[in-house]
């Protein structure tokens, strides 16, 4: 058994010292864990100096109810990491040296303006990484920075992650953000593909204690089925685990669709478009026809379809394994097609649309489209306003008009996380100017001319602006900082606001920027029919926001809560939420109830109906059909996540990397035997894009023909400062993933199903 399938569940792990209860000189504070999408409430014990000396789950959080994982439990080590940057770094001839904030900002302003003036706005690119979804700052100011620059060169970790799901929802429902989530707490049948929430704690499905919620499905007599090329801890917990060949989920899902039609089991609602077209497309994908490709026996596929159709309340859910692959958009689409065809979309126990508290209810919608622009070098379509990170290196290194010469990274480590990372790493080294907003000097930021470090998690507010739209219950929690900022230290919001101001080339302050945004939002809100403040005086609303004396950042959050579906509408609903009320009356968060059907509110396709068979998806099935006859590579690589890791940046926390090396190449013992590889051997993994060396770990958890390496490792690079991580460096899997292979509809990277060869190092 793989060593990480044998471990205890997260709840049983407590790595922190027991908090000295009520001792003199200590205090407790409560906040949301900022590390992953699960949004667990934490109870922190801090000493006089603001050092976190204990962490527990916050039992009064109505959503997480005391659950936490080893990462949350060691938040104190991360917060107090001595390698965390305390001041800006400026790159000189001898490497990085500390500088003061004024000099750092002045350098950034001067260099950005110089490059825009000389080469135009597209010469400055922006990359937003994963923590941008967890901070207050990036959702509030990321857009302002991009707008101020006027650049079309926008990149995010989304095209290494969930972009296929946005494209799918954009075409199906009209809104790329309308991603249905499995109603975990009420479903009786969960079909889960390419997700391993026992390690990841869930994604595009915010559900603290995901493991407990899965166990509860089984305890109430329901069934959990996991489809994965690896027998994960999640698969081990499930009632059934089905091995699937990497990258063939769309084939399998098409066969499920085929079976539903074939056996008269489809029960979609009346008012959906494209049923007949979909049925015709699925015709070619019988379970028998796809079985040699997927590795799933035809009778298993037929049974899975029948079980799904027979279940009273069922949900299909797909995550990283179904997104970061060559048919990412088709697989993501077919997941929701199955939810629709079985009548499970938008009903309790099925797949439902959360109603996030802080979103303005009056959002105006434009028809969803992609490809309004194309990337300069490879001609790849823009999706959701961005280009694929898989082509960032091309845009930096290919000379010509519009070449990227400067880069702003915000909470990202693309030198490790992007496909074909070695090329990108080299490209970053050639930039004229780079500024990174990041707490670490790491593989990416070592290339930056200026690093602007945000303060510690405990000194930062938390409000899950980007995540509540994916939560399995409607919920809200605002966590103000639990410790004050050190003198002279800007918050991350201030850093990003100042970047936006500098990028605009105009004089101004962060407060003036907030004022402008507040004015414009209120102006739109009062003008829009259906808004809770329609027809009111924006000046009066502005005064209401100022009443609590909060910062303009908090006033912006307050505005979003008040205008949102649970908000007080600036007094229109006196019982409604405000930020102040969240903070004072609900410091542990507020449960706003189980998800309610709301498809009618969400749908915004041109037809006003669900478009079950959008033309771009129908067209891409030609590629799927062609692959039925294509040759299958002998060995393919997939990724994996480990509970004590989080992408590339928790490997400097000693408690999380203690023990055995987890960055191993797992492979099936049959493949190992055939290749002459024994446990612990050094092996070379080679692909079209590159090669790497790793230690072999044979395990029958992997299906034959599949090998697996985790991502986010490869820390032994010069010029970085993460002493613990450097001692346990691991290897960067993205040395062998291929930036030329993308899911064409979304531009998403292909991390799963990468053809490789593996050989012992001699
Ligand atoms: N501990 C920890 N937690 C994390 C992270 C982390 O790095 N560590 N990262 C966070 C982030 S950024 C994200 S996006 C989420 C991701 O959350 P998940 O999607 O739950 O994460 P993974 O563990 O990567 O699960 C993907 C699963 O897909 C399987 N798989 C690979 N290829 C295929 C395929 O072709 N088909 C199918 N059906 N399955 C396949 C893999 O074996 C793996 O079990 O996790 C978040 N949480
Ligand atoms: N082969 C392979 N590659 C993958 C994946 C995979 O499964 N396999 N997964 C992909 C996925 S799902 C994702 S999301 C991407 C992630 O890709 P990235 O977002 O590029 O990488 P991370 O490792 O999450 O890097 C986060 C960075 O943010 C910094 N940071 C931490 N906290 C803060 C903060 O509060 N503020 C700021 N400004 N910065 C902060 C960290 O120091 C680190 O530099 O990786 C992708 N890459
Ligand atoms: S599951 Fe996620 S949110 Fe919860 S404690 Fe762990 S890292 Fe934090
Ligand atoms: Mo991610």
Query: Tally of extended strands?
Result: 29
**For the record, what is the CATH homologous superfamily label of the largest domain?**
Dimethylsulfoxide Reductase, domain 2
- Compute the average pLDDT: 95
Determine and state the CATH class of the largest domain.
Alpha Beta
Strand content: 15-25%
- Helix tally? 27
CATH topology of the largest domain: Dimethylsulfoxide Reductase, domain 2
Radius of gyration: 25 Å
Report how far apart the termini are. 27 Å
Give the low-pLDDT segments.
1-20
Shape: globular
Give the ligands present.
ligand MGD, iron/sulfur cluster, molybdenum atom
Q: Roughly what percent helix?
A: 25-40%
SSE-based structural type:
alpha/beta
Number of domains: 5
Biggest sheet, spatial arrangement of strands = 5-4-17-16-15-6-7
Biggest sheet architecture: 7 strands, mixed
CATH architecture of the largest domain, by name, is: 3-Layer(aba) Sandwich
3D structure, described in words:
With 762 residues, this protein is an alpha/beta fold. The protein has 5 domains: 73 residues, Phosphorylase Kinase, domain 1 (2-Layer Sandwich), CATH 3.30.200.210; 153 residues, Rossmann fold, CATH 3.40.50.740; 200 residues, Dimethylsulfoxide Reductase, domain 2; 77 residues, no CATH class; 128 residues, Beta Barrel (Barwin-like endoglucanases). The protein contains 27 helices and 29 strands. The strands form 8 sheets. The chain has a 7-stranded mixed beta sheet, covered by helices on one side. α3 packs parallel to α18. The protein starts with 25 loop residues before the first strand and ends with a strand. The N terminus is likely disordered.
């Amino acid at each position: 058994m793989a060593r990480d399938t044998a471990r205890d569940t997260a709840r049983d792990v407590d790595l922190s010292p027991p908090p000295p209860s009520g001792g003199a000189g200590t205090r407790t504070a409560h906040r949301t864990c900022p590390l992953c999408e699960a949004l667990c409430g934490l109870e922190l014990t801090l000493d006089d100096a603001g050092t976190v000396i204990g962490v527990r789950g916050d039992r009064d959080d109505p959503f997480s109810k005391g659950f936490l994982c080893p990462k949350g439990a060691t938040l104190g080590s991360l917060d107090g990491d001595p390698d965390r940057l305390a001041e800006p770094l400026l790159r000189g001839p001898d490497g990085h040296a500390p500088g003061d904030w004024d000099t750092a900002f002045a350098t950034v302003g001067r260099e950005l303006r110089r490059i825009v003036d000389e080469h135009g706005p597209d010469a400055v690119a922006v990359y937003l990484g994963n923590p941008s979804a967890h901070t207050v700052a990036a959702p509030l100011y990321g857009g302002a920075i991009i707008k101020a620059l006027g650049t079309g060169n926008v990149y995010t970790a989304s095209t290494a992650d969930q972009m296929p799901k946005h494209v799918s929802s954009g075409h199906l429902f009209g809104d790329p953000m309308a991603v249905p989530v499995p109603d975990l707490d009420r479903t009786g049948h969960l079909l889960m593909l390419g997700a391993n929430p026992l390690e990841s704690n869930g994604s595009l499905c915010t559900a603290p204690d995901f493991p407990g919620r899965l166990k509860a499905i089984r305890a109430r007599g329901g069934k959990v089925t996991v489809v994965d090329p690896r027998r994960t801890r999640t698969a081990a917990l499930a009632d059934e685990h089905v091995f699937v060949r990497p990258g063939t989920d769309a084939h399998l899902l098409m066969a499920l669709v085929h079976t539903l039609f074939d056996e008269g089991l489809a029960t979609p609602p009346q008012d959906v478009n494209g049923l007949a077209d979909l049925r015709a497309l699925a015709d070619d994908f019988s379970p028998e026809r796809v079985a040699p490709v997927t590795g799933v026996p035809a009778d298993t596929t037929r049974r899975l379809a029948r079980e799904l159709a027979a279940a009273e309340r069922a949900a299909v859910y797909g995550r990283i394994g179904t997104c970061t692959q060559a048919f990412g958009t088709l697989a993501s689409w077919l997941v929701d097609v199955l939810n629709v065809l079985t009548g499970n979309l938008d009903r309790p126990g099925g797949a439902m649309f959360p109603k996030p508290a802080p979103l303005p209810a009056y959002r105006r919608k434009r028809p969803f489209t992609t490809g309004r622009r194309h990337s300069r070098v490879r001609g790849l379509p823009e999706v959701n306003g961005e280009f694929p990170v898989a082509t960032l290196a091309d845009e930096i290194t290919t000379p010509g008009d519009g070449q990227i010469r400067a880069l702003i990274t915000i909470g990202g480590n693309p030198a490790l996380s992007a496909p074909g990372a070695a090329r990108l790493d080299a490209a970053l080294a050639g930039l004229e100017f780079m500024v990174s907003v990041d707490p670490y000097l790491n593989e990416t930021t070592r290339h930056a001319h200026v690093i602007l470090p945000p303060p510690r998690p405990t000194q930062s507010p938390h409000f899950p602006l980007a995540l509540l739209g994916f939560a399995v219950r409607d919920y809200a929690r605002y966590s103000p900082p639990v410790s004050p900022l050190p003198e002279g230290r800007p918050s991350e919001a201030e850093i990003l606001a100042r970047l936006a101001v500098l990028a605009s080339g105009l004089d101004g302050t962060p407060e003036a920027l907030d004022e402008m945004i507040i004015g414009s939002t209120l102006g739109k809100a009062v003008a829009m029919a259906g808004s809770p403040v329609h027809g009111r005086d924006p000046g009066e609303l502005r005064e209401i926001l100022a009443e609590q004396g909060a910062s303009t950042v908090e006033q912006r959050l307050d505005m979003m809560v008040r205008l949102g579906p649970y908000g007080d509408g600036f007094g229109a609903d006196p019982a409604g939420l405000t930020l102040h009320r969240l903070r004072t009356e609900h410091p542990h968060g507020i449960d706003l109830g189980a998800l309610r059907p709301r498809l009618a509110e969400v749908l915004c396709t041109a037809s006003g109906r669900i478009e079950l068979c959008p033309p771009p998806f129908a067209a891409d099935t030609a590629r799927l059909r062609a692959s039925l006859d294509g040759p299958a590579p002998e060995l393919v690589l997939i990724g994996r996540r480990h509970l004590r890791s989080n992408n590339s940046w928790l490997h400097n926390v000693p408690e999380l990397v203690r023990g055995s090396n987890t960055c191993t190449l797992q492979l099936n013992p049959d493949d190992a035997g055939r290749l002459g590889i024994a446990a612990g051997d050094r092996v070379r993994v080679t692909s079209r894009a590159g090669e790497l060396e790793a230690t072999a770990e044979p395990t029958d958890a992997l299906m034959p023909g599949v090998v697996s390496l985790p991502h986010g490792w490869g820390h032994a690079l010069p010029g970085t400062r993460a002493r613990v991580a450097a001692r346990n460096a691991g290897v960067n899997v993205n040395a062998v993933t291929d930036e030329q292979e993308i899911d064409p509809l979304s531009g998403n990277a292909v991390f799963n199903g990468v053809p490789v060869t593996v050989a012992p190092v001699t």
